[in-house]
Structure to design on (266 residues):
């Protein structure tokens, strides 16, 4: 018999929020390692040898569609044939009535900024863990329900926080909040497009738009350049604040985000 199963399932995930999701459902039945630690950028990430050797002990790898995966998953797969890959972003990208994605979600892999999508992700994690440890099904199911309750409450709180202000727009350096904006009827105005920093003309346009819309805050991620955002903020009389879609404290971070946006939207 496989001695590994009395112990926690060794799991790998790409980013920190996934660690939180897997631990919410797996509890003490999982041991989760993260590829991209806090403060590292998933766009330019390179796994170190220590991480690659840790991977050899893992049973499951939950991917989520962030940029570095496109290169690394194939490489990891070729080295560790026994590692089971479970994509959490499949079927999560909902197609809208007219059969096409909203243009603003294209190129934004941050599906977990939508609590509704996190429910789909959590269900998939639960199914995968149950498959790996069938005898713990009840435990995983209970954890899933508790997490669902927390996500429902989060959704209610976000709506209440956003209802306290009437402007629906916010400006970000990096368009990481498309799914959050879509769920909650907000408009995200991005300074950077397709990973490219804006040229002089685009910059001028962004500044004019920011002034016209009365933008008060520009949000940045700590993984990205501040100076451009700071220059734009100066020109339109706004302040720069940090919002991190990669934070581990998912529920608290989403509430802070809503509060920051609503505070910014007065």
């Amino acid at each position: 018999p496989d001695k590994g199963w009395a112990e926690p399932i060794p799991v790998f995930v790409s980013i920190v929020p996934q660690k939180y999701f897997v631990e919410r459902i797996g509890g003490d039945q999982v041991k989760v390692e993260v590829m991209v630690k806090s403060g590292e950028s998933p766009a330019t990430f390179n796994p170190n040898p220590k991480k690659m050797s840790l991977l050899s002990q893992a049973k499951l790898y939950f991917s989520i569609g962030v940029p570095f995966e496109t290169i690394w998953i194939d490489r990891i797969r070729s080295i560790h044939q026994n590692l089971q890959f479970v994509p959490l972003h499949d079927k999560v990208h909902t197609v809208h009535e007219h059969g096409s994605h909203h243009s603003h979600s294209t190129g934004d892999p941050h599906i977990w900024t939508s609590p509704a999508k996190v429910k789909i992700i959590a269900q998939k994690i639960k199914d995968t863990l149950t498959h790996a440890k069938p005898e713990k099904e009840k435990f995983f199911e209970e954890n899933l329900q508790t997490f669902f309750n927390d996500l429902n409450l989060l959704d209610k709180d976000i709506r209440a926080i956003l209802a306290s202000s009437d402007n629906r727009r916010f400006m970000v350096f990096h368009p990481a909040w498309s799914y959050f904006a879509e769920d909650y009827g907000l408009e995200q105005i991005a300074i950077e497009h397709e990973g490219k920093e804006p040229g002089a003309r685009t910059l001028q346009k962004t500044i004019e738009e920011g002034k016209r819309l009365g933008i008060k805050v520009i949000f940045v991620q700590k993984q990205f350049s501040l100076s451009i955002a700071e220059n734009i903020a100066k020109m339109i009389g706004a302040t720069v604040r940090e919002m991190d879609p990669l934070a581990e404290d998912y529920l608290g971070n989403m509430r802070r985000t809503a509060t920051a946006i609503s505070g910014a939207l007065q």
